Each structure stands twice: as structure tokens, then as C-alpha cells.
Amino acid sequence: MDASSREKFKAGYVAVVGKPNVGKSTFLNTMIKFKLSAISPKPQTTRHKILGILNGENYQILFLDTPGIMEKPRHELDKWLLKRAFEAIEDADVIVMMAEPEKPDEVDMQIVNKIKESGKPAILLINKVDTIDKKLVLPVIDAYAKTETFKEIIPVSVLKNINLDVALEKIVELLPESPPFYPEDAVTDRNERFLVQEIIREKLFLLYGEEIPYSAAVEIEEFKEQDESHGGKDYIRAVIHVEKDSQKKIIIGKNGEKIKKLGTVSRKEIEAFLGRPVFLELWVKVSEKWRQKPGFIKEIGY
Predict the structure, then answer these.
(1) What is the distance between the alpha carbons of residues 137 and 152, in angstroms, rounded to a whole number?
(2) How crowded is the C-beta side of 34, counted as CA atoms within 13 Å?
(3) What backbone torsions phi and psi does residue 71 show, to the nearest 5 degrees?
(4) At 121, is the secondary structure helix, strand, or coil?
(5) Rounded CA separation 21/39 (Å)
(6) Does residue 74 share a domain with residue 7?
(7) I want to staple 10 with a disulfide (CB 3.0 to 4.6 A). Which of 59, 122, 145, 164 is the partner?
(8) Beta 59-65 vs 50-55: how paired, if at all?
């Protein structure tokens, strides 16, 4: 890259914030064209502030995916997640808030106020506009416009790829001039171990009922590439932490059928991601009230 093009190059951190289940992780995965964040129909899937990198001809966007912001944290884990989400707002050069196609409620306004306090340039993406009558979007835009917080309010549909090009153009416009932070072929600062953990956790959300995923955490205890003792396959040992023995029984299932299915679907996606064969071993461990223990939360990677 020559000096003149470097002067015009833009790069910076973009925090993607909003309530649980508004489509933040799907937006991130769609923008960088890489499955980085765990996604499921259940809210609060994201527990980490994930860096996804989008490289363009004259820009590099460093996306921070954040946990969904909720009204009342129920335990230490929720408090930690809320802290991480608000930290992302402080860390970012540009903020992208995502919202449902309805007038802002108390939690939405809490997020708006945090953005306003930060003084950072922000845009609002009203997601899922394909699911409602277009006329109903206008009052929503008007309600948010009155807050005088956003440089642009854009109705989008992440799933239908509506107006994502407009959103990208506006994000780039707001980025500061800067040389790139990472090589142009980078898609994340996370390692394979972390991404494998996310795959297993996503499958937990998809395969089990309402309660289990929220009280479960995945920890990669061992990750050995091309391990000779396992026929040259990558050996991965993952521990699923739950809070009660009854939850452990649910995850394992009758005659171990449920955990076997979890292992199979996880292994197939991990192999597709890594591009090599994997021997995956899953264990379930009862770690009582782990969501209430800050030390444990930090120890397992949050």
C-alpha cells in the first residue's frame, strides 16, 4: 500500500450493541462472511466480545459483537455480560445499535443513553423490517430520531440482506482515517480453540430445551493437533459445566443418546471449520452455582 492510499485508508473498532436476539451475531457473521459468533433462536447466545474483521479496498472494520443488554441482571454472569457490552461502547470508534422494528422500550432507551453519554458516532439498524408492513417502520424511525443520537437510522433485514450495503457504506464513512490493524487476510483475533468452543456451545443452544443452555458453559480442556494416539486426528476434550446433577442427566440423555448427538453434530461442524479430522470427547461436570462465582467465570474464559 503506497503512502497516498494509506492516507485515505480507514480503520477502527465498531461495537454492535442491542437487546438479546435482535440479530447482532447474524449481522456480524453476514458482514464478514464467516461463522464467527454462535447464533440460535434463543436470546443471550453471545457471551464474549468477539472481534470479527472485515477488510475492504480502503478500509478495515474491527467488529465487536456483544452480549445482549438486558433490563435486570439475575446473577454474576449477567452482570459480567452487561459490563462487557458497555465496555465495548467505550472501546469503539463507531457504534452500531440494532433494534426490533418497534418503538423503543426502557432497555432500548438505556442503550441509547449509554451511546449518547459516550459521544461516539453511531448508527441505528432497525432489523427484521421484512416481517412487518413498511408503514409501521416510519413511527419507529421517528421515535428514535427524536433522541438525537444517531447519524443515520437504516431499516434492514439481515436475513434477507436488505440495506446491508447501505449500513456498510455509512460505517466506513464514520471510521477514522488509520492504517489497518491486522493483515488483510485476517477474519478474527480469536484462536481455533475459542472458535471450537463456540461451535459446541451453539449446538447446546440448538439441541436442548429452554433452561439447559443458560446454565451451561463450555470449556476446552485439551486441544492437540494431529495427535498420534488418536490416529493423527486433532484431539479435543471439552467439558460442559452445569449447575445441577439433574441438568447433567438431561445433557447426557437416556443411555447417553443426547450427548452422543451433541458430539456428532459438533464434530462435523468443527471438522468443516478446521478442514481436518477430529476426535471429539465431551464430558459433563456439575459446577454448582458457577454463574454466581466471578472467579470461576473468569477462569473458564469470560
Answers:
(1) 15
(2) 17
(3) -75, -50
(4) coil
(5) 9
(6) yes
(7) 59
(8) antiparallel
What CA–CA distance (Å, rounded) separates 5 from 228?
Answer: 48
pLDDT: is 78 or 274 the higher one? Answer: 274
Domain that holds residue 196: 192-299
In which element (H, E) is residue 14 found?
Answer: strand 10-18
Q: Residue 58: which CATH number?
A: 3.40.50.300
Three-class SS of residue 58?
coil
DSSP conformation class of 290 = G
> Which DSSP category does 68 fall into?
P
DSSP codes joined into one string, 78-95: HHHHHHHHHHHHHH-SEE
CA angle 93/97/102 to nearest 5° reads 165
Residues 6 or more apart whose CB falls under 8 angstroms from that of 11 comprise 59, 60, 61, 62, 175, 176, 178, 179, 180, 181
* CA–CA distance, 99 with 124 (Å, rounded to integer): 7
Residues 206 and 286 in one domain: yes
- Overall domain count for the chain: 2
Helix axes 76-91, 106-118, angle to 10 degrees: 40
- Strands lying side by side in the sheet with 278-286: 217-227, 233-242, 278-286
The pLDDT score that the predictor gives to residue 46 is 44
For 244-269, the pLDDT digits (tens) are 888 899 899 899 999 999 999 999 98
Cell numbers describing residue 257: 443418546
pLDDT digits (tens, 9 = 90+) for 183-202: 888 887 777 788 888 889 88
* Same-domain status, 37 and 130: yes
pLDDT at 244: 87
Cβ(273)–Cβ(29) below 8 Å = no
Cβ neighbourhood burial of 33 (10 Å; 0-12, 13-18, 19+): exposed
